[in-house]
């Protein structure tokens, strides 16, 4: 089948997905399944291969992510229940002072969102914005934008977040380099898109505080110390980082290297962190076995739909790869003369704008660029840089087809036009800065 036909199939598939989700109001999971089948048929894929490819895409995606998401959800929920996240936020505010509260909120969002899903982090942390606004008589926009920028930066660029973890596993990138490059992208992006842009746009856009918001009980009760709380949040990152750093300092193939590889694997790292927070923090604070079980069960329930959507995106990705659509579109994009890092960012941004989901944009783009990266023989560090480029493109120009757009408006009280001026521009700045840092990192390998 000609390249033009395959490229047309890719574009048509994304447009069909947009129509089914936005106009026909079909559930995104069902829409992704239908679009995957349609893409396989119109690309000329043998009918007996379509179902097998769909199964492979679902299994390859969830085989890794399901464990990470389930353990990460439990980890984050228990941290919240014992007050560790509240302690981090409260201490940052105390140390930064009222005049720098917007910087404190950005850092709080960045740190506290590490073990949480984006929407869960927003739900758990948004009350801090209103509490600070009451105490400082602050501008809601100036405070909310940094918090959301920090949460979005952590969800997009930092391990062990589901999206960057998914990208690293699908791209077979080096996890250590993902942490290093992602950390730079997240911090720089958060500062520019959060406190700096928030301070600017708050001069022109603002809205009153929602009347039904109650101040969270920060600082009350026997909260864990700030240092211990921060150490727990960073624990999975440290364990994963030890593997990458230790692998370069110990003898290859030695027993020590094998242990570092085992402990630093994301499965083991998050499991150990989860056990530490349960038995090192929750239990000593008097949490019973029944309470712990209830919290863990409640934590994994919201993850179900996220896993289904992610798996469906993996199905679509695999169809694009195995049908030849991915290689054709990837080659066409590379054929324009764009460097691979720029092309990866542009492809991800294009899919994001059309269909809304950052996760689906990432998975779709991986399916489009993997054939090209295989031909180029890129290393783990280069693949990590490309993964950051894809993550950056996947969050730009968020608008009405993105759940985050409505989440921001719902929790802050902004209308649609105000959300476009604040949330949409913030996401675009964050994604663009992250993408540029990924491109710079790619050139350095």
UniProtKB/TrEMBL annotation:
Stretches that traverse the bilayer: 6-22, 29-47, 62-80, 101-131, 143-163, 175-201, 262-280, 292-316, 328-347, 353-371, 383-400, 420-442
Highest taxon above the source species: Bacteria
GO cellular component, one term: plasma membrane
GO MF annotations, alphabetized: gluconate transmembrane transporter activity
Keyword Transmembrane helix appears in the UniProt entry: yes
Keywords tagged on the record: Membrane, Transmembrane, Transmembrane helix
Name used for this protein in its record: Gnt-I system
């Amino acid at each position: 089948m000609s390249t033009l036909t395959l490229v047309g199939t890719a574009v048509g598939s994304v447009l069909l997905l947009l129509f089914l989700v936005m106009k026909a109001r079909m559930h995104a999971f069902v829409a992704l399944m239908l679009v995957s089948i349609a893409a396989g048929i119109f690309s000329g894929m043998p009918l007996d291969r379509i179902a097998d490819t769909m199964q492979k895409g679902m299994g390859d995606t969830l085989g890794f992510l399901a464990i990470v998401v389930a353990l990460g959800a439990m980890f984050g929920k228990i941290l919240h229940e014992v007050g560790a996240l509240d302690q981090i936020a409260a201490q940052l505010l105390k140390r930064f002072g009222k005049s720098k509260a917007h910087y404190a909120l950005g850092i709080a969002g960045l740190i506290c969102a590490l073990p949480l899903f984006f929407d869960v982090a927003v739900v758990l942390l948004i009350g801090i914005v209103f509490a600070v606004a009451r105490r400082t008589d602050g501008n809601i926009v100036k405070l909310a934008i940094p918090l959301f920028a920090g949460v979005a930066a952590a969800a997009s660029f930092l391990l062990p977040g589901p999206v960057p973890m998914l990208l690293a596993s699908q791209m077979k990138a080096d996890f250590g380099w993902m942490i290093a490059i992602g950390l730079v992208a997240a911090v720089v992006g958060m500062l520019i898109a959060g406190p700096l842009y928030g301070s600017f746009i708050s001069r022109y856009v603002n809205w009153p505080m929602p009347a039904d918001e109650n101040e969270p009980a920060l600082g009350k009760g026997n909260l864990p110390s700030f240092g211990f709380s921060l150490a727990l949040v960073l624990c999975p990152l440290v364990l994963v980082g030890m593997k990458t750093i230790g692998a370069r300092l110990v003898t290859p193939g030695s027993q020590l290297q094998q242990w570092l590889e085992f402990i630093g694997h994301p499965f083991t790292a998050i499991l150990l962190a989860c056990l530490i927070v349960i038995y090192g923090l929750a239990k000593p604070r008097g949490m019973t076995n029944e309470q712990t079980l209830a919290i863990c069960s409640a934590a994994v329930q919201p993850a179900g739909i996220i896993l289904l959507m992610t798996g469906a995106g993996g199905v679509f990705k695999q169809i694009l790869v195995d049908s030849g659509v991915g290689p054709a579109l990837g080659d066409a994009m590379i054929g324009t003369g764009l460097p691979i890092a720029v092309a990866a960012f542009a492809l991800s941004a294009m899919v994001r704008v059309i269909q809304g989901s950052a996760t689906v944009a990432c998975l779709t783009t991986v399916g489009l660029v993997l054939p090209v990266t295989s031909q180029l023989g890129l290393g783990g560090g280069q693949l990590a840089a490309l993964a950051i480029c894809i993550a950056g493109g996947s969050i730009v120009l968020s608008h009405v087809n993105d759940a985050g757009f409505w989440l921001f408006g719902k929790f802050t009280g902004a209308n649609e036009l105000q959300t476009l001026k604040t949330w949409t521009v913030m996401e675009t700045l964050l994604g663009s800065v992250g993408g540029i840092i990924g491109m710079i990192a790619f050139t350095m390998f």
